[in-house]
Amino acid sequence: MPKENKHSRGRREEKKLKRKRDNGEEEPVSKRQKSEDPADDPEVQILGTDDAIQPDGEEGGTAERPFYGMLEDEEQEYFRRADEMLDLNDFPSPEDRSLFLANVYREAEGKELKIACSQSCSRLMERLILLSTVEQKKKLFEKFAGNFPHLIQHRFSSHCCETLFIQSAPVVTEELTADYKKEDTEEEETKEVATMESLFLQTLDELEGQMTFLLTDRFASHTLRVLLVILSGRPLEKSSTRTLLQSKKKEKITVTGYDSTPTELSLNKRAVPSSFQFAVDKIISDTIATMDQSFIRILATHPTGNPTLQLLLELELINPNSKKDVNADQKTIISALLPDDITTENSESATFVNGILYDAIGSRLLETICAFAPGKLFKQIYRTVFKDRIAAIARNEISSYVAMRVLNRISKEDLEEAVTAINPQILGLVQRNRTMIIKTLIERCQARGVETVSLTASIAAAYDSDPSTLVLKMACIDDISSLNPAPVSITTDGSDPSPTPTTQPKSTPSQLHGSLLAQSMLSIPGPPATLIQKSLLALPHETLLTLATYTTTSHILQTALLPTLSNTIPFRRKIINTLLFPSSPSTTNPILHLALSPTGSHVLDALLTSTCAPTATHTSAPLFILAERIASSLLTHEHELRDSFTGRIVVRNWSLDLFKRRRGDWVKKVKAAGAEAVASLPSSAPTEELPEKKDKKKKKNTWGTDVVDPTKSAIQLAREKFAVEKAMKGANQGGRGNRGSGANAGVVVASK
Is residue 506 part of a domain? Predict the structure, then answer.
């Protein structure tokens, strides 16, 4: 297999060519021709695998890739400058930018294919697509029509095709839901404009019959996955989808000042026409029809073909119209992977699953099978492969990720058995920093209602059960002093502080996984949350302040400050006082230190929500006095805050200007924001009730009846309690000459 070129998309080569042109030297065309016209060299491999079969065209022989020509030097210089201007995006107005885009499109007329395949100008094409209107994107579809099979296999133009497809996907939904309205002009009335749906379908028609070949192509496989995601209506901007579509090394083309915030259509599942679902079904059926069982199993461990095979298998399994039974007459991907009964001893299916379980690439396909397989098939796989070996599978670095998928689907009874089997292995998992499997296990125990006492005890024992060091060991921090960043320099002339090199080390994967485990345990009421809370409270003020300014561990404190059922009011009060108001005098002001820290400022935002949030039974915020105390301290250092970029963000988030001028409006604003933040918490993190009210004895009201009535609902009790308090207030005011309001309140209570 030919080695992949690890260089970027030609920045150094572009500078070298420019120097040679300036010196009058002849441009070396051999390398450019190899990258842009591999068909001229018979030794160039254009396949993703050495043993893949090229599609035979009507002309016979291998499918040659056309050469669209090269841009002239003047054209390259013009488009290079246009790319720089679009990258800077320094236009007086959006209208001026639109005029400039129109001029660039006019100059690029008839040269679109050359630009897309150019090493130096393909970025321009991507930026043009990002800023183009719907009509301009449709024109690009028409210009690329008839050449998509070759473009998506090209090193540079494949990126342009991906950008065009992704940016055009929301237009399909808008046209489908009648949200898109084109301007009514005489030209558009006379000329019929193709819909984006038809343009996508025409593109698929060009690729028909070549899907099997494209599965293993180094560049086309990414574009093929983009098309499948768009056709299925899956979210485009979620992290799980992005990792499926592109690698971490992919260069992200952006435009300065361009609003690239993901839209609702990009973040959520999109509505797609029925023709797209038919297209997905046809792609799956045509692809599986052209591949035999051995080739499919080769794709399972192929680095290029495996991600696309994962996506095809997922789309097949989640399709309600497809036959998911492995014994079905219709040939499917799952039936090719698992052709017989897996419960039979030494069956072909069991051998295949055991073979890819510990394979770094094949295990990802097994994750897809365990996550989306029908319930009957999943139970067979679990009982045959995982049930008796779950502890050993969870210990392995590769198979543990498959075990996490399995734990997410098993029943409560099976989960209890898995906890019993994995519990003795907790110490070994902690020593090897395999905390993700522990995190998944404890989260599933909470979801299934399995007791977590023994599991929490094993976790505590694995970290030596010392509260003062448990969180530090969980976050893999050996020396707390090494996390202290360099002091932030404040300028006296009112300008931003100059960036100073920081001594804060970069977080490691072990630290990240340990932090995620601590955050997960804090969100689970009972022993898991209590274990982390006791450890946080046992830490001294200096250690807590250091953790709050370190990126990885600051998320632990932010989770601990959330007003959830597990984070009680007494705990939050203690952790805030220890962090911000130490008993012994400190050399630095903790509040100012957090406000000037890019990481610590997020902890201050969490403190605002924590102190201003109401409880489930009371609209008042029990910790609001701490919010006023923090705001007052911030106000005394207003000048330092406004001299810092991070400090200005804190001033805005805490509304210090409103706090300084109109205190009453500030109180209403931050309390309303706190109530909104509590309402937006996920259902897995229920808000906490005031423990002081729950622990006290039942109170008698003025009318001599008990407030708590087991026959009444919680909302009825809350309304009656509010009415009683209002009546008491009216009675007190009646003693000062307003007795009528108390009598009226009594009538209201009696009526209720």
Answer: no
